[in-house]
Amino acid sequence: MYWNEILPADQLPIRYLGYSTSFRREAGTYGKDTEGIIRLHQFDKLEMEVFSTPESGAQEHSLLIAIQEYLLQQLKLPYQYVQKSTFDIGKPNASGVDMDTWFPGQQRYIETHTADYMTDYQARDLRIRLRHGDKETELVHTNDATAFALSRILAAIMENYQRADGSIAIPEVLRSYMGGRETI
Q1: Which tens digit of pLDDT belongs to each residue from 12-33?
Q2: Residue 35 above 90 pLDDT?
Q3: Measured at the alpha carbon of residue 123, what is the angle toward residues 121 and 126, in degrees to the nearest 5?
Q4: Is 74's pLDDT higher than 60?
Q5: Alpha-carbon torsion (16, 20, 23, 29), positive or negative
Q6: Among 171, 131, 164, 129, which Cα is nearest to 148's?
Q7: Distance CA 80, CA 21 (A)
Q8: What is the dotted CATH code of the domain comprising 6-178?
Q9: Domain ranges across the chain
Q10: Cβ proximity of 170 and 178 under 8 Å
Q11: How far apart are alpha carbons 124 and 145 in whole angstroms?
């Protein structure tokens, strides 16, 4: 979107929420956890992206994490915050956080959200820069974070809200979108 562009620093941060179909290539798991809708090869998600100054990049990372927590809290899903080690965050990331949501049917927490702070890694290849007034240009910093991986959050809702009779209570925050229904 901003390939080879110079963005005015006073217009940053630029924040986006986008819908995309994603494809996952399993590495090292040899098909583990590929049954059902929790870990699909192809899945849809809402992803948050931020372009910021180097000075505000870490703060934007914290904001995306706060949004993820807010979304999980609104759904009243039990979750845990996991600060990933540098070994687990992947090559381009300076920092990474996962939100793992409780899946009672599996008796374990499963990663439903990821937030990655990549500093200038993506901008370097794409040559996305910023300029403060008349000063030299510098690379923007980027963040990305999951708002919702749709199949995975649906599974979390179903597992956490299923009743003994097999019906599923609709989380209160979603009821207005379901015509006021309380169960399905």
Answers
A1: 999 999 998 877 665 445 555 5
A2: no
A3: 120
A4: yes
A5: positive
A6: 171
A7: 26
A8: 3.30.930.10
A9: 6-178
A10: yes
A11: 20
